[in-house]
């Protein structure tokens, strides 16, 4: 059995303290977990181990929350981040359970938010969005549900409008080539690209002859 001889706030992490036992540094601890400790108190090995285990869980949880404060993340991204921070597997899994219980980790919500954000600010095809969600580690069925209401015709128009506006002075061939390529890079199928390019030409080149279907690749 050891005796607590000092409890000192860490200089770089004021939310944590250093615990000194029998005159020597023993371990660091989250301040909230050290609330019941005091100098002169005896510390059994079992209690030390329990406090350190709780501290590992709390540290991993706070790491995850800090990451989530930047933007929403998938479970796979959270797991990968904690592994990079050398968090033990059992601690990582307990942390994910805790995050799920508190609705901080929810792949279905993450997928819906991702699709909504992309559709609003960086429109792209269903296929491209599915690929992005797959890279984020979202399960196929969860991604499919999030993508179920996607209207690719509308997204293609939204995606191509800014590019079409930039090509106001372009001739018909240059316009269709560049807008078509732009939409293709965002994963839209040829059938949607064809109709979208024709519509965008009409909208941005009022008074000029419309693009004929045979003119569009």
Description of the structure:
This protein is of the alpha+beta class and 217 residues long. The chain folds into four domains: 1-43; 50-105, Arc Repressor Mutant, subunit A, CATH 1.10.10; 107-147; 152-215. It contains nine helices and four strands, in the order E-E-E-E-H-H-H-H-H-H-H-H-H. It has helices spanning 45-68, 75-84, 89-101, 107-121, 126-135, 140-147, 152-166, 172-185, 190-204, and strands at residues 2-9, 16-21, 24-30, 42-43. The protein has a four-stranded antiparallel sheet with strand order 3-2-1-4, with helices on one face. Strand 1 (2-9) and strand 2 (16-21) form a beta hairpin. Helix 2 (75-84) runs antiparallel to helix 3, helix 7 packs across helix 9 (190-204) and helix 8 (172-185) crosses helix 9. The radius of gyration is 28 Å and the shape is elongated. The N and C termini lie far apart (81 Å). The model has no long low-confidence stretch (mean pLDDT 92).
